[in-house]
Design a protein that fits this description.
single chain; Four Helix Bundle (Hemerythrin (Met), subunit A); 2 strands; hydrolase activity
């Protein structure tokens, strides 16, 4: 079950990453929406309403979660860049996934959010200096976190959810 939940493994940050590594994660963010769209473009409504694992979210819920999570992450980045060690807010993602917008909103709405947000986030990330990536915020769940680690977590999170979607497609031979 853990392999289905975490098909690429759990997040492991790299302390003191290099500029080349950061550039790779930034490129992942730029390409994320394109990759996600490729993997979901031909899914039927029935497939979108299929959980990626037993007891897990549906593909549609995963896509809406990605949009919500990335909006929150973007705000954390901006706050860390403009405030001294701000306390980041958290949200109850499992409860959010049960709300009607996750059930009733077409995925195209969240795809548009992700495409726009990633484009804007890429512009912000491209402007950051190595010192900017040392700025920090406090996460209620992860403690003090640098923007360097937050960037890594952001890229991992999207890769993780795209792999959940591709793995259910492979298992069910869609």
């Amino acid at each position: 079950m853990d392999r289905l939940r975490y098909p690429i493994g759990r997040f492991e940050g790299i302390p003191n990453s290099t500029a080349d590594q950061r550039a790779g994660w930034m490129e992942e963010i730029k390409q994320c929406s394109r990759k996600l769209r490729f993997h979901v473009q031909n899914l039927t409504l029935e497939q979108l309403h299929t959980p990626y694992r037993s007891g897990g979210w549906t593909v549609q819920q995963v896509i809406h979660h990605m949009a919500d999570n990335d909006m929150n992450a973007y705000i954390r980045f901006k706050r860390a860049l403009t405030e001294d060690q701000p306390a980041a807010s958290t949200y109850k993602e499992d409860l959010w996934a049960d709300l009607s917008d996750y059930q009733e909103t077409p995925i195209e709405i969240s795809m548009a959010i992700l495409e726009s947000l990633h484009a804007r986030f890429a512009i912000l990330l491209d402007s950051l200096t190595p010192l900017d990536f040392e700025r920090t915020f406090t996460s209620p769940t992860h403690g003090l976190m640098s923007l360097d680690i937050a960037l890594q977590r952001f890229a991992w999170h999207n890769r993780h959810h795209i792999e959940q979607i591709t793995s259910v497609k492979e298992r069910l031979e869609w």
